[in-house]
Specification:
Helices cover 69% and strands 0% of the residues. Helix 2 runs antiparallel to helix 5 and helix 3 crosses helix 5. The protein is globular. The relative contact order is 0.13.
Length: 175
């Protein structure tokens, strides 16, 4: 049985107009993982969506980025490979269709529920996805910076995670 978005986020009550699109986005993702505990399902759904957000920042999601997203969702979510693939495909589709409107709301839900350690892990995973094609574009880098801010991480946290992927930053590569 699939859960509604408000159950997914543990909010209950009637939908507010501004959360309707967020509800639909995360509902589609969680349909693929509805056998999980609700809190874990919320975590995986928002995690996958934010990975897709960074992968789609440059309006193109490469095969390498997709494979890295699948690997991360499988590992972090403890999902079988088939479910991880499905979750990533849904997250990618939702980012392409509704990313701009849902980005902030979903990162805020993640920020409320995740521990500092989980937020730092997310930051590293965002860089891992964006660097999977051996290049982190300025647009992707800026999107990760924005997410770090939305997760209320400090600038030093962002720089620390970014430095591990320095060789892939397009802004630092000689042309």
């Amino acid at each position: 049985m699939a859960m509604g978005i408000f159950e997914l986020f543990g909010l209950g009550g009637a939908k507010k107009p501004e959360t309707a699109d967020v509800a639909e986005t995360l509902h589609k993702i969680t349909e693929a993982i509805d056998k999980m505990e609700p809190e874990q399902a919320r975590y995986v759904a928002s995690f996958a969506f934010m990975l897709g957000r960074v992968a789609h920042a440059d309006l193109e999601i490469s095969k390498e980025e997709t494979r890295e997203m699948e690997r991360i969702v499988e590992t972090v979510g403890g999902l079988p490979v088939e479910q991880a693939i499905l979750v990533v495909q849904i997250a990618k589709s939702q980012n392409k269709l509704f990313g701009g409107t849902d980005n902030y709301s979903i990162s805020q839900e993640f920020e409320k529920r995740a521990t500092r350690r989980q937020k730092l892990a997310m930051l590293n995973c965002l860089f891992a996805v964006s660097s999977s094609d051996k290049s982190i574009s300025t647009i992707e880098d800026n999107e990760i910076r924005k997410i770090a801010s939305e997760l209320r991480l400090e600038h030093g946290d962002f720089i620390g995670a970014r430095s591990a992927f320095r060789e892939h930053l397009e802004v630092l590569k000689r042309k």
